Structure formats: C-alpha cells, structure tokens
C-alpha cells in the first residue's frame, strides 16, 4: 500500500510462547502491548501458551480465522533450543512469507548482539489477510523488532507498508 496522510489503528494480538513465564513475569509480551498501544493500535487479545506446536498453532489459527484480528505478534520459541517450536507451528499457516523481515531483524540485531543473531529464527508472513510476526523471547529483541514492525503497520510510512493488505 502506498502511504496515506492519516494513521489507521489496527487490531493486534500478542502471543507469548514460554514454558516458564506467567502473566506476571511476561515482560516481553507486556513491552509489546505497551509499544503497540503507545503508537495508537488496539490490543485485540493477549495470550500465553506453552512451547508446543499444537497449542501455538491452535491459538494463532483462532486469531487468523477472526477477521477482526489484523496482526499477530508472537514472542518466544524462535531459537534453537529443543522446545523452540514457534516457527514450525506458524510457518505452515503462511499464505506468503515476508522474507525481508527476518533478514532485516538479524541485520539490526547484529549491531546489538553480534554473531549470536544467527540463532534467531525471527520470521513473518501473511495468513488469511492477517500479518504475523514471530520474534525472539527477550524483551530487548521485541523492542528491536518493533522498530521495523511499527513502520510497516503505519499507513503513513513511505514508500509502502502492510496496512493495505490488512484493512
């Protein structure tokens, strides 16, 4: 979509994938909620699930099927640890993959954490006109990723953004 002159608020769900975090200790999910509402988007829903392919896929599928949910931001489960399964759970749902998101995230992240960024499997894609971002579980990584996401969810961003694909 080419840029417009006005901000269009979107409905965004936040999913935390973790075997150890609780609602009280989910700093990454909370940071994402604060970042998205600060710029004017609406929190559609928020959930926390265990790092299990089927729990992740079920929650994401539920939101994808609801036309009122336009964006899903997932934090956690994108590394190489044995239980990290967010990418495996979500990528089969994509109609199209946003290849450049993971590439750009790792490029920016390299400036912050060096070569350790190669262990990030951050990815994004479109499924049923819902934009999905899969981010690492650290709060710092979520804040880094949000610098990219915020621009792409702003209808005023030039030369293009994802808003036209979602509304």
Number of domains: 1
The class by helix and strand makeup works out as: alpha/beta
Taking pLDDT < 50 over at least 5 consecutive residues as the criterion, the unreliable ranges are: none
CATH class category name:
Alpha Beta
User: Main β-sheet: number of strands, strand sense, barrel status?
Assistant: 6 strands, mixed
Q: For the residues shown, what is the average pLDDT?
A: 96
Through-space gap between termini: 11 Å
Number of strands: 6
Percent helix, as a range, is 25-40%
Could you describe the 3D structure shown?
By secondary structure, the protein is of the alpha/beta class. The chain has one domain: 3-Layer(aba) Sandwich (Molybdenum Cofactor Biosythetic Enzyme, Chain A), CATH 3.40.980.10. Helices cover 38% and strands 20% of the residues. The chain has helices spanning 27-38, 53-65, 86-90, 99-113, 139-152, 163-166; strands at residues 11-17, 42-49, 71-75, 96-97, 123-127, 130-135. Strand 1 (11-17), helix 1 (27-38) and strand 2 form a beta-alpha-beta unit. The relative contact order is 0.22. Keywords: Molybdenum cofactor biosynthesis.
